Amino acid sequence: MEEYLQMSETVAHEALNTFCECIPQLYHKKYLRNPTQTDIQKIYEVHEQRHGFPGMLGSHDCTHWAWEACPVAWQGQYHRGDHDGPTIILEAVASFDLWIWHAFFGMPDANNDIAMINVSPLFDCLVNGVGRDTSFSMNGVIYEYIYYLVDGIYPDWATLVHSFTCPTDVKR
């Protein structure tokens, strides 16, 4: 710390803490929130115009981050065989403009995409039937629920639309 930043470790930690406290204050109203009904309509319109996906609220995926400072007692809960050390999993949903409006860090033993989706609060509103109106129309049919674009590992749920990894013809 001292050589690279030319400041003591204490001052560097204080600066980092101040930075971390300021981020929510600066960006909460615009970015660190769920989309409003107006946001949802804008996302729908742009996805349909640019990509031909009416009713899609964003792309959903999970990624692993190496957790080098993971406490030794917890490492078994955050370890996966295909990674060298403990990782924490991040679930995120991003819209067309790369607004990451949903981010959720995993819990112990939620070390893959399927386990993560089962503990995530993203679908709680659908499960509990308390979500806001996100209906959309396609080919004259009104659909009640939003959907997310995902890769092939996710379950076959109505709100998850799988992408084609290897297009086999012009239509796909």
Summarize the topology.
Elements: H1 2-5, H2 9-27, H3 37-51, E1 56-66, E2 87-94, E3 100-105, H4 113-119, H5 124-128, E4 136-138, E5 141-143, E6 147-150, E7 160-162
Parallel strand pairs: 1-6, 6-7
Antiparallel strand pairs: 1-2, 2-3, 4-5
Task: Report on this structure.
29% of the residues lie in helices and 22% in strands. The protein contains 5 helices and 7 strands; from the N terminus they run αααβββααββββ. A hairpin with a 2-residue loop joins strand 4 and strand 5. The N and C termini lie far apart (52 Å).
The tally of strands reads 7
> Structural class, please?
alpha/beta
> Runs with pLDDT <50, length 5+?
none
> In which range does the helix fraction lie?
25-40%
Question: SSE order, as H and E?
Answer: HHHEEEHHEEEE
The end-to-end span amounts to: 52 Å
Shape: globular
Give the overall pLDDT as a whole number.
82
Radius of gyration: 20 Å
Biggest sheet overview: 5 strands, mixed
Tell me the domain tally: 2
How much β-strand is present in the residues? 15-25%
Number of DSSP helices? 5
Instruction: State the strand order across the main sheet.
Output: 3-2-1-6-7
Question: Briefly, what is this?
Answer:
With 172 residues, this protein is an alpha/beta fold. The chain contains five helices and seven strands. The chain folds into two domains: 1-33; 34-162, no CATH class.
Looking at this protein, list some descriptive labels:
alpha/beta; 172 residues
